[in-house]
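G., the chain you wanted modeled:
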Amino acid sequence: MIPLLHDFEGETVLVFGGGSVGARKARRFAREARVVVVSPEFADTDFGDSELVCGAPTPDDVPEWFDRTDPALVVAATNDEALNDRVEETARERGALLNRADQHGGRAVGSVVVPATVRDDPVVTAVATGGASPAVSRYLRQQIETEIDDAGAMAELTAELRAELQAEGVGPAQRRDAVRAVVRSDAVWKALDSGIPKARQVAADVISDLTGETP
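Predicted structure as tokens:
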């Protein structure tokens, strides 16, 4: 498997299954996409900002739900293998991405695994085991959470610095070295705790020492 990031802004995600697994998938995608969850009943848990549609679709009903929602991604999270099989078959016919929550380990070609993620926008870190061990993914996610504090702020700071250096005519190699020096500076990371303005001052000193340029 090769990890990819997919922008679901403006897309629809269709989830079959209203149990705890379906709810977890719905919450994940509702951050960005329109999510429709179809189930005869729903777990008493958070589905995020999802549309909950009460229904008990049979395998023959699945194509109609694709027609109604035109999903970019479909999640099969029911305890009915025949229904999940039909969801998978229809997703492949319609060219939609597919995530089967009832399969672990080996998966069909083209299937999607939803990884455990850690966010400090705009930084996103994902961990996956190919569906073999969600417990390992969750454990590693917890470890990573403690390691990327202020990563989002650092990403924003270095993006600004890179743009400013480019505007000043600093060459690509020098820009690359300057940004790397900032990212590797313990002083800049520490200064981020006090906010971007303080970190910018420290980063400017790092860049000046390296290139003689002050962004």
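The chain has a mean pLDDT of 91.

Shout if anything looks off.
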